Amino acid sequence: MLPIQWSAVAPGIFGKLFGGSSRQGTGDEFVPGEKISRRSTGFNEFIRAISREEGLKVLDLGSTSPANITFMTGLGHKFHQEDVLRSATDKALVIPNGDGGTTIDVHRYFDENLDFEREEFDAVMFWDLADFLPEPLVKPLIERIQVAMKPGGILFALFHTKDAGPDAPFYRFNIASKDTLELQPARAFRLQRIFNNRHVENLFREYSSIKFFLGRDNIREVLVIR
User: Fold this and answer.
1) What percent of the chain has pLDDT over 90?
2) Are 213 and 220 in contact (CB under 8 A)?
3) Would you say the pTM of this structure is higher than 0.90?
4) Class for the domain spanning 39-225
């Protein structure tokens, strides 16, 4: 799947970019209705960190959001989009695991996705993807992102707490303001696992620092510095 990248976006172009049946995801995938507004201390710090200069390169790994494109290009940044969870559902990636079951072809996934240069990005919006991705992809994805981030670059992630429950909904995260996210429910994906703080620290053990923020909605916010 080819990534989407903008440094500037014309106001009338969204219909062409997001129409049809693209694997980037539109149509009835997202539940119609009012979005949930969520204040975020961690995201506010993320935005403060990347607002000190223009021309940074920002990577969004979540579901395609015109609001995120508009917000980041409005800050003067270059915006790069890859919907990693949607690309992970490609049926062509499913292979036998040798025990009568199936698994994900990790090598093929990374051959076809996330083809980044070393130290390419200043900031990454990872959202809550680690909780929903197939298990074989989680650690390799974190490692791939580390290589693609510049030293001192910043990553924002979300993790469900143990109280979230197995039926916790999947959302598209739309940036409403520097400290507020709008969460749009989606039908497609189910929670796969819960990471505690130690698990999260282990995921990012090769990064230079990590900071946690605990929300009141069974979500743990995380800022990681490369």
Assistant:
1) 74
2) yes
3) no
4) alpha beta
